[in-house]
Amino acid sequence: MIQIKKYCLILCAFVLLALSGKTQTCDIVFYGTIKDAKDHSVLSGAIIGISSIQKNTLTDADGHFHLNRLCKGKYNVEVSFLGYKKKSFFIEVNKNTEMNIYLSLDNTALSEIKVVGKQATAEPVYTAQKLEDRAMDLSRGQSLGESLKNIAGVNSIQTGPTISKPVIHGMHSDRILIYNAGVRLEGQQWGSEHAPEVDPFIAKDITVIKGAAGVEYGADALGGIILLNPPPLNYHSPFSSEINLIGASNSRMGLVSGKVEGAIKNETLAWRFQGTLKKAGNSSAPGYYLNNTGSDEINGAITLGYKRKSFETELLLSSFNTKLGIFEGAHIGSVEDLKYAIANGRPFADGNFSYGIDVPRQEISHHLLKFDGKKYLKDNGVLKLTYSFQKDFRQEYDLRRGGRNDLPALDLDLSAQNLSIVYEKNQPNNSFIKYGINTAIIVNNNVPGTQITPLIPNYDSFNPGVFFIKKIGLKNKELEGGIRYDFKTIDAAGYDANKVWYGGKHDFHNVSFSLGSLFHVKPYLDFRSDLSLAWRPPSVNELYSNGLHHGTASIEIGDKNLQSEKGYKWINTLSYKQEKWKTEVSAYANYIVDYIFLQPDGTFSETQRGAFPIFNYKQTDATLFGVDLQNSYSINREIEWLLKGSLVRAKDIVNKSYLPMIPADRISNSLIWNIRTTHQKWSLPFISVEHIYSAKQTRYSEQNDFAPAPAAYNLFNISGGISYKVGENRLGMNASIFNAFDTSYKDYLNRFRYYTYETGRNFVVRLSYKF
């Protein structure tokens, strides 16, 4: 307790020191936000400058700008942004001055150009894709893992129809960092059936980083990074709101999500309330129901913002709560019945529809408190401080012989504190320098009273890290390099089924780095090359698991002697952008030393709770090679063709075999008809048809599985939508038919593919009203 108080006093002193300082003669700040004059959306990457003193800057991702160290006087300000009319005006400053600047579209210059989006940001050196606009709208109501499958190179690993988590370039769970509203998500990510504890409705867009950017976010990003980016607070409108209604036929899912926001006190205070309610019943495969696959979800978030002169701060409080049914057909009474179920490939009974959720099930609550602040300094730099506290509760209920199904079989309570202090300074020619420290303290305990030996022991974890990044912009190229050092200690303690103590202290540390380059070969052709080293210490379940993991319906056994994974990844991306044709191709190679994976030993354990296959955590050296493709072509002004594809080749180079649970080759083709209309109220009508082909995964080793890989499959999805103007407000309507032909198929990355087919046809209707 004394150390915590001392830590808080040092932190407060640091903040007060950053905010202190006397005003100098030439220390005036001109700051504000640049927006679209029509819909008030922020313009990121706009240029604002004062030519007489050769001072200019770019707006950040929230459209904010700061021109620091101005003397008293009158200045000619010039503002420009691609596709908008330039704006020039005089301003007299005698003190710190804030201004909102509105730019109008240059209709003359853009009369023959199809405008897809207004925001434009400086191109990143690393390889990244973003889910936004229409693609984001059409993914509403889906889980994070399912939504991101719209990005090439991203798949999802599933545990039945209720649980899905992202897979990037063949890796998932602890090898992927998820940042929710700028905070690293800390929970029970180690489980392949532990879905991310986030509400996608909190995000305006979602970015997937595949290349060399882990230096800033953390050392564990062997697979990649996912950023859920909320919209910036609106300081300039007293009140606005949005409501989304979604219904789905398969599982008879109903969802409502809404937000209200506004600003008070001369645009210095802003607020937002956001919430989501979701309820779904049993899903259905073609011809039968999957019993006990319903879900309930209640989420909410409150955001408060304050800004004044050269300082901004934001406070976020969010709560995510869900109950997930686990398909009951995966829990079987005897070894013979289990083998028979796998051979049958589907449930023996057709099931029925119900909203009830029985055992097995998961109940998860995740609460987040985040405080961050920005101080714009005299040297044109920005000092950012972010502190977060997360509380994660996970209860997993299992079918228990003799009753007592009201007691959880696994009951975990995790507390996490994260602190980040970062200094960033933009420099001329799209250059910048950034460095900082990150610290994480995690305490994870088993809650007593389950009457079952815990799957993992209690543990404490402490993880400080420091990083430095430098970017240099040259005539036709941009270079970025970064280095990071992390230290992580894990102190575990538990008792096994024989009441024998086990555990111990483990210390891990390593350096990670990234080297990235962006070459503007032609005005329409860019080439990126990223080389990085990332590392990941083994998680507690990999070290010490010794029992039934009910979510995966398997017995998992850890190895306390596992070493840290070290991944060397090289990714090269070619981007071609013309008016009609846009193509991006990425090729990557990833060499991972001491790769950790689960391997079935070919035997089954018959317990009081049923019969389950046994898996052991193993370690080897591995290589992963792959290619991602995203392509769009405008056939004419109305019809667009989209092509997405990905393939991964993964090998265990020590044992000369294939790695388990690697995505199969996948390709999708879409035709989109953007219907022209002259109606004053109706706008943006479209219809799209998508075909998805997933090949059979032939690259697997029999010793890593206990059933053959499923056959290849073809799916067809149909979507359409339109927007209607209601006064000054907007009503958006769209609908989708997933698996339009009700195809029976199995996906290789579904842990329950042994017992059932995937879900069948699903009609989804979405309504969105902004006012």
UniProtKB/TrEMBL annotation:
Q: Which Pfam families match?
A: CarbopepD_reg_2, Plug, TonB_dep_Rec_b-barrel
Q: Which residues form the signal peptide?
A: 1-25
Coiled-coil annotation reads none
Where in or outside the cell it occurs: the entry states: Cell outer membrane
Main localization is membrane
Keyword annotations of the record: Cell outer membrane, Membrane, Receptor, Signal, TonB box, Transmembrane, Transmembrane beta strand, Transport
Does the record carry Transmembrane as a key word? Answer: yes
Q: Does the keyword Membrane apply?
A: yes
The record ties this protein, via InterPro entries, to: Beta-barrel_TonB (IPR000531), Beta-barrel_TonB_sf (IPR036942), CarboxyPept-like_regulatory (IPR008969), Plug_dom (IPR012910), Plug_dom_sf (IPR037066), TonB-dep_rcpt-like (IPR039426)
Membrane topology recorded in Swiss-Prot or TrEMBL: Multi-pass membrane protein
Q: Which domain of life is it from?
A: Bacteria
Occurrences of domain TonB-dependent receptor plug (ranges): 131-225
Q: Where is the TonB-dependent receptor-like beta-barrel domain?
A: 282-739
Family, similarity comment: Belongs to the TonB-dependent receptor family.
This protein is called TonB-dependent receptor
Q: To which species is this protein native? A: Pseudopedobacter beijingensis
Taxonomy, top ranks, is: Bacteria, Pseudomonadati, Bacteroidota, Sphingobacteriia, Sphingobacteriales
